[in-house]
Amino acid sequence: MRKLILNNKQVKIPFFMPVATKLSTKLVSLKEVEDMGYETVISNSFLLYLNPGLEFIKKAKYLRGFTNTNLNFFTDSGGFQLLYDNFFESITEKGIKFRSPYDRSLHLITPEKSMEIQTKLNSDVVMCLDYMPRYKDSKKDIEKSVNLTYQWAKRCKESYKGKGKLFCIIQGGVYKNLRKKSAEGLVSLDFDGYAIGGLGIGENREEMFKAVESVIDLIPKDKVRYLMGIGTPLDVKRFIKLGVDIFDSVYPARVGRHGRVFIDDGYLDLDKTKFVKDFSKICDCSCSTCENYTRAYIHHLIKIKEPLAKRLMTIHNLWFMKKNVVG
């Protein structure tokens, strides 16, 4: 049976991580996230390195002290920012050159630099720097990403001196042979856990599932499997059956801010006029939103553009993921 021990405690798997990119889940505090029963969130180490900075985080007693929680923190290297033109500048064998969203300054993030940043953040789980290709990239470019991701993972392992767990990230797009090559190479390096990245970025659902199926059995049975960026309830349930242990996504919070709430057999769009006089709660759950407010009331808040509507729906979706999807 697979186990994951973080902050000297065994974490129950499978689990879903709310995304706290800059140490905040939009409209909901991390203390509230913790009170819902979540044990773990994920943040972006590159953005935290820029602001508030590593020395500030240290003075604030690191990520738990600064957020006044006892949460576990995964930190991503920032490689996901390759998808955004306003962040990404260039890529070489040395690493990735990013542009700061704050002052437009340039920063070269090498595998060694990423490990240094995440060590200084005192992260519980550190993600290797990876080259995340875009969905429409050529197969040649995706093969390049597989090769660079392997080389960078090797350098990350050689340079990492922190106390947290070190996870690598399997790439390969929707190509089974490249996924297999990536997984086998990274498994040979022996990491604490294995993430499957580069999905949920444009491919259809069947391509996504086939990509995961092509590598899941290549990951050692005693090592946890983490599928990055996937967060719809139905997809998470299906991937749990395949053997995935860990998930993260902005999806539950993002769609909640836009009027969509989860229910057992799908979702509701509460901005629709059919909810004007619907005085039932969203669904049969015990979140604070469902215990106190009706669909009609939330619909009313949406129509008058009251920000409270977004907060109430975000709370419901995060609660639903924790209690109804991953347990």
Structure description:
With 327 residues, the chain is of the alpha/beta class. The chain folds into two domains: 10-249, TIM Barrel, CATH 3.20.20.105; 260-326, no CATH class. It has helices spanning 30-35, 45-50, 54-59, 62-67, 111-120, 139-159, 176-187, 205-216, 233-242, 251-256, 288-292, 295-303, 308-326; strands at residues 5-6, 9-10, 15-18, 40-44, 72-76, 88-91, 96-99, 106-109, 125-127, 165-170, 193-196, 224-227, 246-249, 260-263, 266-269. An eight-stranded parallel sheet has the order 3-13-12-11-10-9-5-4. Strands 6-7-8 form a three-stranded antiparallel sheet. Helix 7 runs parallel beside helix 8 (205-216). The chain is globular.
* Radius of gyration computed on alpha carbons: 20 Å
**C-alpha geometry:** globular
Topology order in helix (H) and strand (E) letters: EEEHEHHHEEEEHEHEHEHEHEHEEHHH
Count up the helices. Answer: 13
CATH topology of the largest domain: TIM Barrel
CATH superfamily of the largest domain: Queuine tRNA-ribosyltransferase-like
Short recap of the structure:
The protein is α/β, with parallel strands linked by helices and 327 residues long. Helices cover 39% and strands 18% of the residues. Helix 7 links the parallel strand 10 (165-170) and strand 11.
